[in-house]
Write a structure and sequence with these properties.
heterodimer, A: mainly alpha, MetI-like fold, 2 domains, B: mainly alpha, two-stranded antiparallel sheet, globular
C-alpha cells in the first residue's frame, strides 16, 4: 500500500510539474532553500564539533565562532586517543553489541516462530505477557538487576553488559509479525518433502526472514552500542571494560575543559554509528516504519 | 505462570515427541508435535524474560520495602522508603522537574517531527538525504550528543559566540541559570530525539491515498485544510503510537541532565531517573532508589492508561 502510493505519485509528478506557473516554481524554490537552511542549522552542532576537534586550544572560544582555527591539528585526535583507549572501548563495544545481538536474534526468532506458526496451549496468553514486558522501563530494573549481578558475581564483567538485555520482547514481536505473513503453503510443501518443525524453521523460515533479522540486528546493535545507564552502574573498571559512551563520559569528567580533545573524542565516538547509518539507512528506516519502535 | 509451565513442557521427553512426528502424517501425531514444539521454541526467550525482566520487577518491589545498602545486610522497613520519598521535598521537586520536562518536550517533539514529515513530501528533491540528516542524532551515542551541546551552551561557546558577534550582548548562561537550564535540556533533547517520530509520520503520510486529498481539493479545500482535516485524521493511529512512545521514553530522561547540569543549578533540573541513580549508586540506598523507580513505573503506567482511554476521542482506525 505504501509502495503503490509512492509509485502513483512519482508517475504523475512530471506532468504536474510542467503545468505549474512560475510563481509556484519560485515559491517551491524558496521553500527548498528554507529547508536547506533548516537542515544546516540542525547540523551546526555537529559541524561545530568537527571544527573544534581540529583547532588549537587557543582558538576554541574565538568570537565570532570560526570554522577553521589558525592551524589544522590532527594531533588533537592523537592526544585524545593517547589519553584514553578509545580503540579498546570500540573493541569492547563491538564484542558486547555483537554477542548481545546474536543472543537476542536466536531467542527472538525461535519465539517469534512459536508465536506465529506453531499452535500450542497458552500461546496467546504467553504472548500477551511478552508484550506486557515492553511496558517496563529499563530504569525500574536497574537496581534489582544490579543486586542480581552482585549475587552471581557478574558486576564488572562483559556478560553483565550482554545477557540481561538480550531478551527484550521487541524481537519476538517483530518476527512474529513477519512469520504471520508467510504463506502456509510453504510449511505444507516442506512437510510433504519430509521436513519436521525444526528443519522447516531452519531451512525454510529463517532464510525468508533475513530482511527482518537484519533490521532487528541493526537496532539491537545500536542499542547495545549506545547504552549508557546500565554500563555506568555495573562497570567500575572503565579503562578495561568500558564501552564508548562510558569512556567518553569519563574522558569528559577528567578533561572537561580541554574542549578540542573532548570534541575529538566525541567525533571518534560518533563515527561507528554514522558509518552504520550511511551503510544501512534503508534497513533502519524500514525498521522504524514497520515497527514504529526502533531503538527506543 | 505460563512461562514456567511452558518451560516445564519444554523438558518433556524428547524421544516421545520425536517418534510421534516422524511416524506418520496421521492427525493425532501432528497434534502432539504441535503442542510440544511451540513451548520448546518459546522457552529460551520466555525463561530469559522471566529471569531478567519479570523476576527483577518483582524483586524491585521487595527491595523497595527494605533498607538495602549497596554492601551488607538489608533490614525490613515496610513502607518506610515510600514515606520518606513522599515527605522529601527534593523528591517532590524531582517529580515536578520530570513532569515539566515531559510537558515541554513531548509536544515540541511531536510538532517538529510532524512539521518536518509534512514538509518532506515525496516531491522534495533529495528527500531521502534530508530524512537521514534529521535522523543522525537519534543514532549517535546520546553521551556524545550531550557533550557537544554542553559546549554549545558554554559561556563564550557556540551560541554565546554567535550572540556576541551578532548583537554584542552575552547570551544567558544557559546551564548555570535556573530559569534557562530546563529549557536548554529540552531544546537539546528535541534536537536529538525527533528523528524517530519524523520517520514514522513521514511513512504514515506517504500511505495516505492520494485520491482522498485530490477529492478534497476538487471540493475546494486548500492544501492547509487538506492537511488538518484529512491527512492528520488519517494518520492519527501513528500519532497516537508516537505520542505513547515519546511520553514513556521522556519520563526516563537521564543522560541529558546527568551530563549537562548534574541536576543543577540546585536541583532545578534533577529528574526521577537521576534521583534513582544518585540514591542507588552514589548514596548506596538501593531500597530508596527502588521505591523511586516504582513511583516512576506507576506514573508511566497511569499516563499510558489515560492515553489509551482518551484515544477513542481522537484516533480513527476506520480509514
Amino acid at each position: 500500500m505504501l509502495d503503490s502510493a509512492v509509485r502513483t505519485r512519482s508517475v504523475r509528478e512530471p506532468a504536474a510539474r510542467k503545468d505549474r506557473p512560475w510563481t509556484a516554481r519560485v515559491r517551491s524554490a524558496v521553500g527548498y532553500a528554507l529547508l536547506c537552511l533548516v537542515a544546516l542549522a540542525f547540523l551546526s552542532p555537529l559541524v561545530y564539533m568537527l571544527a573544534t576537534s581540529f583547532k588549537p586550544p587557543a582558538d576554541i572560544f574565538s568570537i565570532p565562532p570560526t570554522l577553521l582555527g589558525s592551524e589544522f591539528r590532527w594531533q588533537n585526535y592523537q592526544e585524545a586517543l593517547n589519553y584514553m583507549p578509545f580503540l579498546r572501548f570500540m573493541g569492547n563495544g563491538v564484542l558486547v553489541s555483537a554477542a548481545g545481538t546474536a543472543l537476542s536474534l536466536v531467542v527472538s526468532s525461535l519465539s517469534g516462530y512459536a508465536f506465529s506458526r506453531l499452535r500450542w496451549r497458552g500461546r496467546n496468553l504467553t504472548f500477551m505477557v511478552f508484550l506486557a514486558t515492553l511496558m517496563i522501563p529499563q530504569e525500574v530494573l536497574i537496581v534489582p538487576m544490579f543486586v542480581m549481578m552482585q549475587q552471581v558475581k557478574w558486576v564488572n564483567t562483559f556478560q553483565a553488559l550482554i545477557v540481561p538485555w538480550a531478551f527484550t520482547a521487541f524481537g519476538a514481536f517483530m518476527l512474529r509479525q513477519f512469520f504471520l505473513g508467510v504463506p502456509q503453503e510453504l510449511d505444507d510443501a516442506a512437510r510433504v518433502d519430509g521436513a519436521g518443525t525444526v528443519r522447516t524453521f531452519l531451512l525454510v523460515m529463517l532464510p525468508l526472514a533475513r530482511p527482518t533479522l537484519a533490521v532487528l540486528a541493526v537496532f539491537s546493535f545500536i542499542n547495545y552500542w549506545n547504552s549508557f545507564l546500565w554500563p555506568l552502574v555495573v562497570i567500575n573498571d572503565v579503562n578495561n571494560l568500558g564501552t564508548i559512551p562510558l569512556g567518553l563520559q569519563m574522558f569528559f569528567g577528567q578533561q572537561g575543559e580541554q574542549w578540542h580533545l573532548v570534541m575529538a573524542a566525541s567525533v571518534v565516538s560518533m563515527v561507528p554509528t554514522l558509518v552504520l547509518l550511511v551503510l544501512l539507512q534503508r534497513h533502519l528506516i524500514k525498521g522504524i516504519v514497520t515497527s514504529g519502535l526502533g531503538g527506543r | 505462570m505460563t512461562l514456567l509451565k511452558s518451560s516445564q513442557a519444554a523438558k518433556a521427553p524428547r524421544s516421545a515427541a520425536g517418534r510421534a512426528s516422524s511416524s506418520s502424517s496421521a492427525a493425532a501425531p501432528v497434534r502432539a508435535r504441535k503442542t510440544f514444539w511451540g513451548p520448546a521454541f518459546a522457552a529460551p526467550h520466555g525463561v530469559g524474560l522471566a529471569i531478567f525482566t519479570l523476576a527483577p520487577i518483582a524483586f524491585s518491589l521487595a527491595i523497595s520495602l527494605y533498607r538495602w545498602p549497596l554492601l551488607g545486610a538489608p533490614t525490613f522497613l515496610g513502607l518506610g522508603n515510600y514515606q520518606r520519598l513522599f515527605s522529601d521535598p527534593i523528591f517532590g521537586q524531582v517529580v515536578w522537574n520530570t513532569v515539566l520536562f515531559v510537558v515541554l518536550y513531548v509536544p515540541l517533539n511531536l510538532v517538529v517531527s510532524l512539521g518536518l514529515a509534512a514538509w518532506l513530501t515525496p516531491r522534495i528533491k533529495g528527500r531521502h538525504i534530508f530524512r537521514v540528516i534529521f535522523f543522525i542524532p537519534s543514532i549517535t551515542p546520546i553521551v556524545a550528543n550531550v557533550v557537544v551541546w554542553r559546549m554549545l551552551y558554554q559561556p563564550s561557546g557556540f551560541i554565546d559566540g554567535i550572540s556576541q558577534a551578532a548583537t554584542g550582548i552575552h547570551a544567558p548562561n544557559f546551564l548555570g541559570d535556573e530559569h534557562w537550564a530546563m529549557l536548554a535540556i529540552v531544546a537539546m533533547s528535541v534536537w536529538q530525539g525527533f528523528g524517530y517520530n519524523m520517520l514514522v509520520f513521514s511513512a504514515a503520510l506517504d500511505a495516505v491515498p492520494e485520491n482522498l486529498a485530490e477529492a478534497a481539493a476538487i471540493d475546494g479545500a486548500n492544501a492547509w485544510t487538506v492537511f488538518w482535516r484529512i491527512k492528520l485524521k488519517l494518520i492519527s493511529p501513528s500519532i497516537f503510537f508516537a505520542t505513547m512512545m515519546t511520553l514513556i521514553t521522556s519520563f526516563q530522561v537521564f543522560a541529558q541532565p546527568f551530563i549537562l547540569t548534574k541536576g543543577g543549578p540546585g536541583s532545578s533540573t534533577s529528574t526521577i531517573v537521576l534521583y534513582i541513580y544518585n540514591q542507588g549508586f552514589q548514596f548506596h540506598q538501593l531500597g530508596l532508589a527502588s521505591a523511586a523507580a516504582w513511583v516512576l513505573f506507576v506514573i508511566i503506567l497511569g499516563v499510558t492508561a489515560v492515553q489509551f482511554i482518551g484515544q477513542k476521542r481522537w484516533v480513527h482506525y476506520d480509514a
